[in-house]
Amino acid sequence: MNLENAQVQMRKGILEYCILHIISRGEVYASDMLDELTAAKIIVVEGTLYPLLTRLKNAGLLEYKWIESKSGPPRKYYKLTDRGSKFLSKLTETWDELVHSTQTITTKSNS
Q: Is the pTM of this model over 0.85?
């Protein structure tokens, strides 16, 4: 079994949740999302992020608007829709349950 592959799969599994959470704080530019995900060691490249953002938009979970930039072309800023907020709320419930379940298993001693 390849450890690096297992680690990548774990990160991929929570990527959508993390992206929705970042966007839930307010309108956000994709490059700022990349910076935050990288700083949190959930390493993502543009080739992964943009298709995921498109999929989330097509599912009605987020929307975007173009905002003029002082230093270049207009930028696309994302925000959650009402449906996206409800979806994130359900994901958060699931996340909390998973964290609790995982901690229950991983903190149990061998006695």
A: yes
